[in-house]
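Section 5.1 Outputs to date
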Amino acid sequence: MRLVTYSYEGNQRIGALMNDQVIDLNYACVEMLHSQGQIRAKQIAEAYIPTNMVEFLQGGEQSLKMANDGIEFITNGSSKLTRKVVWPVSEVRLEAPVQNPAKMICVGHNYREHILEMGRELPPYPVVFAKFSNTIIGPQDDIPFYPISEQLDYEAEFAFVIGKRARGVTQEEALDYVAGYTIANDVTYRDLQRRTIEWLQGKTVEGSAPMGPWLVTVDEIGDPAGLEVILTVNGEQRQRSNTANLVFTVSYLVEFLSGIMTLEPGDIILTGTPGGVGVARDPQVFLKDGDIVRIEIDRIGVLENRVKKVNWEE
């Protein structure tokens, strides 16, 4: 299933993308329950399928089953619907699939070639840092380029989202705790990142985490190793690697991170970026106003955003 967060007529809701159409999960559930004679159909649907992705993931397998049942009900062609449930994707605005994660954990130096280009050795433990939810923008948003730096850089990232509370999870069971996978761009202001030994200030500027266009559920991907990751700027390839080249795999990261903190449904983990970042090139090359940054990951899709110079007032 491809789970989306979408906006329509000023309302933000969650749905499933099927055949270029968005099925609203909450509305589909309401209609299904109405057809079964449930008097409190709306209230039951709100309990199992809220309109917020994090709250939906908190419902776990029960919510996912209800969503699948609702989709099946709608796709079977019921003609007795009380409201519109399905929209062409062209008529809605796709947002980042997860809007308000409790945690955004990023892994640095996790592709072998990127570690080498940065002049470092393979780390014995994952290098982790944070981004915050203020950085999240969607697949149809511009990347804001604020006049605080001229060193705006791209980082293609394969990301995964936690599906249920995880504490002390082993690698063998790790994927049972993953809800799905998406694409992220860990946009970085390099000079801000490097002016202290902590990276945070260069990583958490508003709008520096384009994400989407959807969350592909874990059952559709299976083994997350072996996925090609490609980033282009204005059609020119800058990064290319494969998730098989991760030093620390998805399973390892779930085990490692859940060993030091409790992971909650909706938490996002960015697994690191391949070689080819702008700061490591000779000569260095950074993003500029009007650039089109496109990231493609096998079996997930494409995330494409334009860079736009803005002021803080905008």
